[in-house]
Amino acid sequence: MSEATAPGEAPVLDVNDLHVAYGSRTVVNGISFQIDRGEIFGLLGPNGAGKTSTLSAIEGLVAPASGSLLVDGIDVRRRPLEAKSRLGVQLQSSSFQAELSIVQIAELYAGLYGLRLSRAQISEGMRTIGLEEETSKRFKQLSGGQQQRLALFVAAIHEPLLLLLDEPTAGLDPQSRRGLWRRIEHLRGEGRSILLTTHSMEEAQAVCDRVGIIDHGALLTLGAPAELIDRHGKDPRVLDVAHGDVTLEDVFIGLTGSEFRD
Question: Is 44 contained in some domain?
Answer without folding.
Answer: yes
